[in-house]
Amino acid sequence: MHNFLPIAYFQNQFVPFAEAKISIATHALHYGTGAFGGLRGIPDPNNPQQILLFRLDEHCKRLSNSARFLHFDLPADKIQQVIVEFIQKNKPTFSFYIRPFVYTSDLGIAPRLHNIEKDFFVYGLELGDYLSPDGVSCRVSSWHRQEDRSFPLRGKISGAYIASSLAKTEAVESGFDEALLMNSQGKICEASGMNVFMVRNGKLITPSYDQDILEGITRNSIVTLAEHFGIPVIERGIDKTELLIADEVFLSGTAAKITPVKQIENYQLPKVRPITDKLRGKLVAITENRDSDYQDWVYKVPLN
Ligand code: PMP
Fold it and tell me: Which residues are listed as membrane-spanning (predicted)?
């Protein structure tokens, strides 16, 4: 069972989570016309009266942009203000995940985005490790990621997650932990809910923004951290066979943080991963307010 935070934001007010309910006729449920964000919150290990949020402004900006694809004008500062108030009302004492969501809330039928009621809600739940931090096995999916010309891939649009769901279940039902999806050009672009990186000959390589990826905030932070360490970063398409012979492969995301890949189909990857470990150590230290670098990436919400 999930441990939900007791208070949600729903229909412009804070209400008990159990009372935040939608109708079976809700438009977005039928047409996939929602968009969401996903942030981790943790109590500051040095000060339990303070909650740490990683790159809050970037998350709010991305959700505001996703809302634009749905013809919903929701400014990033409004999202930020609601999230901060949401945390102050809930006062969580554990690691949690925040799910802000915008959607067509109308009860009428017919797919469209104009002349239709929309709503914005926020709820949260306790979240520990999303994937095993020791590493995961992956299957390259027979399902491909959508193309940008058929889907606004720069938004976290709920309907897009049908491909992720098909791919993840295909992977798990065939004995793997996670799926890697190809784009329409046959390049590996991301996992079901994570970006992908590989290390070859000391260089960090990740699909570029024109490879049909979600513009991951963790991805962007890792690129900055790699440059900080002097690790060369190359952003380009990645072939499946390059991944199979890579020195290190890892997945990145808000929920997954940096998760090593230990196996792709029947190929084992090296167990020693110096660059993955270095980047993960730094990223986790920053998110936990244990590092003096990149302090501006950590937003601190006071609880009193
Ligand atoms: N790709 C997809 C499809 C995702 O759902 C996510 C999770 N939001 C990511 C990548 C990683 O993005 P972020 O680092 O911003 O969480």
Answer: none
Q: How far apart are CA 201 and CA 253, in angstroms?
A: 24
What atom in ligand 1 is closest to the CA of residue 62? 15
Report if residue 19 sits inside a domain: yes
ipTM over 0.95: yes
CATH for 147: 3.20.10.10
> Which pair of tokens denotes residue 208?
């570029």
Ranges of the chain whose pLDDT falls below 50? none
Q: Is the CB of 194 under 6 A from ligand 1?
A: yes
- Model pLDDT, residue 131: 87
Q: Is the pTM of this model over 0.80?
A: yes
Name the token pair of 210. 């024109």
Is residue 62 a part of any domain in this protein? yes
Residue 241, token pair as written in the block: 């066979």
**Both 167 and 87 in a single domain?**
no
Q: Is residue 58 in contact with ligand 1, taking CB distance under 6 Å?
A: no
Q: List pLDDT tens digits, range 152-169.
A: 999 999 999 999 999 999
Which atom of ligand 1 approaches the CA of 161 most closely? Answer: 3
Q: Please tell me whether residue 112 adopts helix, strand or coil conformation.
A: coil
Q: Which domain holds residue 159?
A: 136-287
